[in-house]
Amino acid sequence: MNQKRFIDVVRNNGIILVILLLIIVTGIIERNFLTFNNLLNVLRQVAVVGIVACGMTYCIIGGAFDLSVGSVVSLAGVITILNINAGVNEYIAVLYGLMAGVGVGVINGVLISLIDGRSGEAFIVTYGMQVVVASIALFPSNGLFIAGRVSEGFFKSLGQGVMPIIIFLGIAAIMEFSLKKTKYGRVMCFIGGNMDVAKMSGINIKLNRISYFAISGLLAGLGGVVLCSRVTSSNPTAGLNYEMDVIAAVVVGGTEMSGGSGSVMRTVIGAVIMGVMSNALNILGITAYHQQVVKGIIILIAVAMDILNKQLKLKEMAHDKVFA
Amino acid sequence: MKKTGLIVLMLVMVLSVVVAGGAKEKTPGAKKIFMSSAYYTAPYGAPLQEAVREKAKELGYSVQIVDGEENADKQLSQFKAAVADGYDALIYWPGDQASSPPLVEYLDSTKLPWVAVNTVVDDSVLDLVPCMVASDEVEIGRWLGRLVLQYFDENPSSSKNMIYIEGSPGSSYTENVTIGVMEILKGTDVNILNDHQYAEYDPSKAMAIMEDMLTKFGNRIDIVVAQDGGMFQGAYSAIQAAGYAGKFGLFCQGQDLIVKEKLLDGELYASVAQDPFREGALSVEMLDKIIKGEAVDKWVPTPTGPIWAADVDDYSWF
Predict the structure, then answer these.
(1) Does A288 touch chain B (CB under 8 A)?
(2) ipTM, two decimals
(3) Which of the following CATH numbers is that of domain A35-285: 1.10.3470, 3.30.420, 1.20.81, 1.10.1040?
(4) Which of A242, A279, A197, A228 is nearest to A55 (CA)?
(5) Is there a single domain that holds both residue B59 and residue B106?
(6) Average pLDDT of each block of 10 consecutive residues along chain A (324 residues)?
(7) Partner residue opposite B233 with nearest CB, options A231, A237, A287
(8) Which residues of B touch A115 (CB under 8 A)?
(9) For residue B151, what are the domain limits?
(10) Phi, psi (5° rounding) for residue A173?
(11) What's the pTM value of the predicted model, to 2 decimals?
């Protein structure tokens, strides 16, 4: 490998290399770390954040943010568990949870589209929705922690064994295909890259953007259902600050915050990186205070590398033009 | 422009409906109590606040409870606004011991009747508090420690390895409970594996921690202790999924319904009592006495102690 290629690999996959180093070191220190069971364990742990992050990736690529996802995770969980406890058919109860997510997503999308909002407006609108939905999640449960009266069946299976992993990776694969291989995905990148030009090209911006938020809401709802299934209970504040973990997974994966480009599979990697890091630090016995510092630094490195990459690409393009 | 106006109009309409629906019925001529709750949305907060509302209604007061969001500065502003609005008495649920002094000093300066509830205020301002209704957090920890020792007396084991799942780092409640646990376990051969595992009272975080601990220690674990019922539920889900259910001694603190269920199932060895209903009701009773000029104790402790499966009917559950 020549020097330039090596630098390119490091530049594009720096975070992955850091994590690989962490995996190797942890694997040497703690033999239980590099086992198949622990790998499944990590994937299960990141499945919920990962599912929600897939939806967020579409929003970010499409030039917006969805800060309401954490509250939707809480709301969907509360709705599903309350319905199951009330004797509603499990499939219908799960559907209610998902519909709540889609509903919030559509409202977000319609509001942002109506005001022709960009990422800044989306940030504020979805923040407002986050506050509203977080409060709505408290109403039906009266703010209480609710234990699910279910020990087996469809709902319980969603959070057990490899099912959360299958859901997570399955959704990611479908979304990546849609992003890379369909017109819908190309339009998403176009809108996120330059909304004004996309509008002048005759693309139905509003409908497309509503669909990104609806997908984000749907997946946040699904994340909430899987989360509740895993712990067989719902907590009306379960999704508190989830949006930050989700955005971190997307950014660490390498999707550009400014929109226009990105990859769902990179988000999967981002979510796995965050999960592996937590798992490794826990297994190594690193205290919670230090873990937060490490996580924060990893996110900062990811953002810095994203900016550095962009600057270097611009420099290279300028260089190529001058010497062409 | 028209669309934006339409959105604003719709939002105003929704707001009006919500405000009208959320407005509490007021008793004409009743004295007004204002409460700032640092843990308004926490699972423990809901029953405590409900008990405050019920007891206030029973004693003929109207009550307004607001969310202090664990933010001392916000709570101070809320109390200042309440005093300006003419409230007659105040209830303060501190977010944290360390941040309580400025609030206690302000409440003392208002000369209004007031009480503190749930979270123990800082020692430096304890004298300024007319009445504090709270459980002894360190004692709750001591009880957890005593139960651990009792478990090993009843279930002798060559190893005494314990996983201890705590609440939030930096929270005085979490730290005080831990102080109590350590006080009892100090000098014993109980070994805490991977100390300071904070799940921030979140069942899913407790589950992830437990999964990691099971990966690392597996059947070397003898007992698991969680600082509340929600975290216990998360840890239990991980234990069950990994096929270890029934193999460890499990303990927690709290009176959540999930705790009651697991006690009755025999899956939980014991819990430690902290009753939000009693705490909420007591705070209004003490405030009522202060308003009427009657003498009250400086610290009215909420009873704590072990809850066994046989005793569940003696306690309130939420």
Answers:
(1) yes
(2) 0.81
(3) 1.10.3470
(4) A242
(5) yes
(6) 72 76 86 88 94 97 95 97 95 97 97 87 94 92 84 91 96 97 96 93 95 98 96 89 92 88 93 91 82 84 78 80 73
(7) A231
(8) 3-4, 7
(9) 137-272
(10) -65, -45
(11) 0.84
